[in-house]
Amino acid sequence: MLASALVIVAACGSSPNRQVARLSTNAAAPSAHENGWLAFASCMRSSGVSSYPDPASNGPPPKESLEQLGVSSSRFEAAQSACRHLLPNGGRPPSRAEEQQVTAEALRFSECVRSHGVPDFPDPGSDGRIPDPATVGVDQGSPKFQAANQACRAYRPPYMPSNAAYNTYARSHGS
Fold it and tell me: How many other CB atoms are there within 10 angstroms of residue 101's CB atom?
């Protein structure tokens, strides 16, 4: 039951360990990806999940349990079925080619960040995603990282937070 509530987030490969990893703002104008998540959230609310959250930026909304959303699994699943077509890629997992493209972009981002003065920034793991930089001692709030993050924004994967998104998260979580 709860797995179905989290399937929309899992389909886009969001990080289960840190909510901040889902926050990002790469461009001023909303992307097709962002519009999909906003449309999906709106559809979920109009389909009976009135407390379904908007995404914080161009990634999926924060994970919330059915209890937090205040709905039954059957109501959630019905709304999700009605709204799935609005999700990026129709809610389907990415193809192998799409996964390879995301991994290549993540590698470009990692290389760029390192070339801008953050030598310990990690490469993508075997899953194609960059692990949480804090796990290797990278302070995402440091001026050096923030300058590199800004300089490399063209390559930043959607699950990596922009400086503004990270700072907002850090302030709201007492980091």
Answer: 13
Cβ atoms of 146 and 116 closer than 8 Å? no
Quote the CA–CA distance of 47 and 3 in Å, as a whole number. 19
C-alpha to C-alpha distance for 26 and 57, rounded to whole angstroms? 9
Instruction: Give the C-alpha distances (Å, rounded to integers) separating 23 from 71, 75, 81, 82, 159.
Output: 25, 27, 25, 25, 6
Strands (E), 57-163: none
Please answer whether residues 58 and 26 qualify as being in contact, where contact means their C-beta atoms are separated by less than 8 angstroms: yes
Q: What is the reported pLDDT for 60?
A: 72
**Residue 19: other Cβ atoms inside 10 A:** 16
**Among the listed residues 156, 175, 173, 174, the one whose alpha carbon sits nearest the alpha carbon of residue 25:** 156
pTM, whole model, 2 decimals?
A: 0.53
* pLDDT tens for each residue of 34-69: 467 888 889 999 999 999 988 765 567 777 889 989
Helices H, strands E: what count in the chain? 7, 0
Q: At what angle do helices 2-10 and 73-83 cross, to 10 degrees?
A: 30
The domain limits of the chain are 2-91, 96-172
d(CA 151, CA 155): 9
- Confirm if 2 and 80 have CB atoms less than 8 A apart: no
